[in-house]
Every structure is written in C-alpha cells, then in structure tokens.
Amino acid sequence: MEENQGSLSKPVAVMACTAMTLFYVAILYAPTLILRLPPPQSFKNFMIRRFVCAAVSSVASVIFVPLILPIRSLEASFLFGVYGIRSDHLWQAVVFPLFLTSLMYVGSLMLKSILLVNKWNQHRNQDGRPLFDYIKSTVLSFPSQMSSVASNVLFWRNFVVAPLTEELVFRACMIPLLLCGGFKAYNVVFVCPTFFSLAHLNHMMEIYSRQNYSLLKASMVVGLQLGYTVIFGSYASFLFIRTGNLVAPLVAHIFCNYMGLPVLFVQRKGLVSVAVVAGMISFAWLLFPITRPDLYNNRTNNCRCWQGYCSWS
Questions:
Q1: What domain count does the chain have?
Q2: Which end of the chain, N or C, is surrounded by fewer C-beta atoms within 10 Å?
Q3: What is the C-alpha separation between 262 and 265, in angstroms, rounded?
Q4: What would the pLDDT profile of 17-34 be if each residue is shown by its tens digit?
Q5: Catalytic annotation on 123?
Q6: 252, 101 in Cβ contact below 8 A?
Q7: Domain-located, residue 1
Q8: Is 147 within the bounds of a domain?
Q9: 2, 75, 89, 166: the active-site residue
Q10: Closest listed residue to residue 97, CA positions, set 263, 285, 262, 236
C-alpha cells in the first residue's frame, strides 16, 4: 500500500466506508424487500438467512476495497496482509489481546467465581458430595453441553458470524481506507467506530416494539448500545492498528460478546469492587506495552504489516 499517497482522499475514504456500512445493513433486508422471498418459517431460518446476507456483504467489501485502495501488489499474500489476515505471530495476536481484554472483566470473572463457589457449597449441603465429585460431574457433562450450545443459532451469531463479518468490514476493510485517505492513526481509532455504531441502528425498530412501543425506553436502550459499540469499536480499531493483525480484535470481540457488559460495582461484595479497580488500572498500564507493534511483527522498519508502518505516530 502506498503510504498516505495515491489517488485516495479523505472524502473518498469516508464515502467508501459509508457505502460499506449502508450495504452491510441494507442487505439484511434484501431477501424480503428486494428478492421478495417469503418470511422465514422459524427463528433459526431467519438467522441463517441473515448469516448468508452478512457473508455476502463481507465478501463484497473485501472485493471492493482493492478497487479503490492504492495497493503495490495484487499477490494473494500481500492482499491478505492489507486486511490483517496473517499466519505469522498468530499466538501473540491471540494471547496478548485476550489477556488485555480480560483485565476489563476482572470484576465479572471474580463475581462468576464467587457465584460458582456458592453454588458448589449449596450442592454440597444438599447431597454431601465432595468437591472432586462435583468437578468430575461437571467435566463429564461438558461434551453434551457443548453439543447443545453448538446447535444453538445464537451461538453462531454471537461468537462466529457477527464477530467475523463485523471485524472484516469495519476493521479490516475500513481502517486501511481511512489511513490511506490521510487520517492519522489516533483519528481512525475514533472515526471508524462511528460507522460501526451506525450499523447497529437497524435494531431500533426491533427494540421499539420490544419496549411496548415506548420511544423513550427504546431510545435509552439504543443509546446505551451505541455507547458500548463506540467504546468497543475504538478499542478494536486500536488493536488492529497496533498489531496489524485481524485476529487481535477478533478474539477481543468474541470474548466481549461472551462476557457481555463488564461488572463495575456489586453491593456488599467489596472483593469484586477491588478486582474491578485492579483490573482497570492494569488494563490502562499495559494497554500500550502489550500492544507494541514489534511484538506482532518481525521488524517495525518497513515491516510486512498491512499499514506500511508500525509506529503509533
């Protein structure tokens, strides 16, 4: 990629990102509005139809970006590198961002641990089973639980389709466009999540009907959702720019979808509050050191990572 040079300008980059955002949302309604297909007979069929639409949108965006991006080479390895799809430094791109993200959820993990211990104590008092037997029964039931989870369409939406397609479109496709359009890296961290949050506005009518058609309640729910997507989008964009690897924001996205909103305060559980504060301090302290570009690239001077440079500035 020609570094901040070529025919790509800021307005073109912004318009291209806007077009991809609109297409990502609009295609979800294409089967009924454009193709005139009958409504799906079940929720599972409805979600599968949306999975296909999201996949088509992602593939179209991946094909669209090289048409306007000033790329030096059309070789497959180089094109994959543009999107941060790389096989090198894979374990670093998984372990370090996952550890960093988990620090924001130390309070949630502490609370889950306390609840798990309390649940075990309750079972022990009821049937007198020792801890080992309780752990053994939990492990033995794990395969059947996983089979049940894997057959759940919401599992595929939350942990496979949504993270993969959203990271491809809103990070892998949009960030190279914005950087090559002349935006500074720290600006992209805050500009890119705007498109990501706008793509979630399509849930407004669904939430509006769910809230008994109360505009105030629906607006509050949507506002909270948009705020969360902006914060997470900024963090995911930061990871993508710092590492140059799509896996980094992808694993963070999956983990956040699994954990939900982090616990910040719990009444009468001071240990959880202490864990929350310790986690947030550790996260802020490690944010830049654990995302150093040289941890994810063989070299930072004329390196292989997609953005053509690896310095934060």
A1: 1
A2: C
A3: 9
A4: 999 999 998 998 888 888
A5: no
A6: yes
A7: no
A8: yes
A9: 166
A10: 236
